[in-house]
Write a structure and sequence with these properties.
Elements (H helix, E strand, L loop, with lengths): L18 H14 L7 H5 L5 H12 L10 H14 L3 H5 L7 H18 L21 H29 L16 H10 L1 H7 L8 H8 L11 H12 L3 H11 L2 H6 L3 H8 L15
Helix pairs in contact: 8-9, 8-11, 12-14
The structure holds a DNA duplex.
Keywords: DNA-binding, Nucleus, Repeat, Transcription, Transcription regulation
InterPro entries: Homeodomain-like_sf, Myb_dom, Myb_TF_plants, SANT/Myb
GO cellular component, one term: nucleus
Length: 289
DNA sequence: AACTAGATCAACCGCGCATTA
DNA sequence: ATAATGCGCGGTTGATCTAGT
């Protein structure tokens, strides 16, 4: 099947939006709503692709967009949600009102990713990068000890899991699925538990989402709708119940002696460790305003 | 002041999913 | 059941800005 182009590429303007174009788009949408994005440019009198209009509106012109730099709390939230959700920027954005997926993706790639690297953490897995032979931020001895503690915690959590799993299987399926190959809650939860994601939770390690593991959990990386998807909420609540990645960050604080903390003199590192208490998962329930 | 390299971020592109005919 | 269409997502690009020399 050949996909029809979304617009006549030769007849549309590309590149940065002019002020007048913004005005036209805002005026049109405020009066008529966006309706069909494909037909909007023609109706509004814009020489733009509908896709471009949608992007401009959702990423910049929308009235509820929060402009300006991210607060430390927002940055922290992005890091923690990334540990749970991986590169699902739209899902992360849904938890930060006023911030767009594009903005979050940019802030991640330009700031937060580098910050994790400088802390000696792998930005994809959120695990100490010494595991891959490139530790920079923390003393190797401390990290080795932490790995051992995680392993111990994992064994403990696995025992708990065996009890939790049976309880979860009793949950009723929340709604009829539209497709026969879509999973019900218990099935989905089990898949999560048995996936890389679930293992991370069970291990009390920060979650790492490889593309393969995301696919194994959800079918595809974009199948979960970010805003009200019950599966996503369930995933997040699983994380909550299982002392997720925030415990990792704060837990490391608990386990480091003062002298070890001095070893990692990076003040940002300290900030991240101090941000949440071991059981404080409220950031998943309350939204940053 | 001029140049360069790196950082930033708005915008584009291609793909996949959902919906509709 | 299948094809066509629209939309949203994540990855990438490139123009612009900024700091350093």
């Amino acid at each position: 099947m050949v996909r029809a182009p979304c617009c006549d590429k030769t007849a549309v303007k590309k590149g940065p939006w002019a002020r007048e174009e913004d005005d036209i788009l805002v005026n049109y949408i405020s009066k008529n709503g966006h309706g069909s994005w494909r037909t909007l440019p023609k109706l509004a009198g814009l020489l733009r692709c509908g896709k471009s209009c949608r992007l401009r509106w959702t990423n910049y012109l929308r009235p509820d967009i929060k402009h300006g730099p991210f607060t430390p709390e927002e940055e922290q939230l992005v890091i923690q949600l990334h540990a749970i959700l991986g590169n699902r920027w739209a899902a992360i954005a849904a938890r930060l009102p006023g911030r767009t997926d594009n903005e979050i993706k940019n802030i991640w790639n330009t700031h937060l990713r580098k910050r994790l690297i400088s802390m000696g953490l792998d930005p994809q897995t959120h695990q100490p990068s010494c595991l891959e032979g490139s530790a920079k931020g923390l003393p190797t001895s401390s990290l080795t000890r932490h790995m051992a503690q995680w392993e111990s915690a994992r064994l403990e959590a696995e025992a708990r899991l065996s009890m939790d799993s049976s309880a979860l299987l009793l949950l009723p399926s929340p709604k009829k699925t539209t497709s026969p190959n879509k999973t019900t809650y218990p099935d989905y939860i089990l898949r999560v538990w048995h996936s890389e994601v679930g293992e991370s939770f069970r291990n009390r390690k920060p979650v790492c989402f490889s593309p393969a593991s995301q696919a194994s959990v959800s079918g595809t990386t974009s199948e979960m709708a970010p805003k009200t998807d019950p599966k996503l909420d369930m995933e997040l609540s699983c994380a909550t119940r299982s002392d997720d990645c925030s415990t990792f960050y704060s837990g490391m604080t608990d386990r480091l002696s003062p002298s070890e903390m001095e070893d990692s003199s990076d003040t940002e590192l300290q900030l991240y460790f101090d941000f949440h208490g071991p059981n404080d998962m409220s950031f998943l329930e309350t939204q940053v305003n």
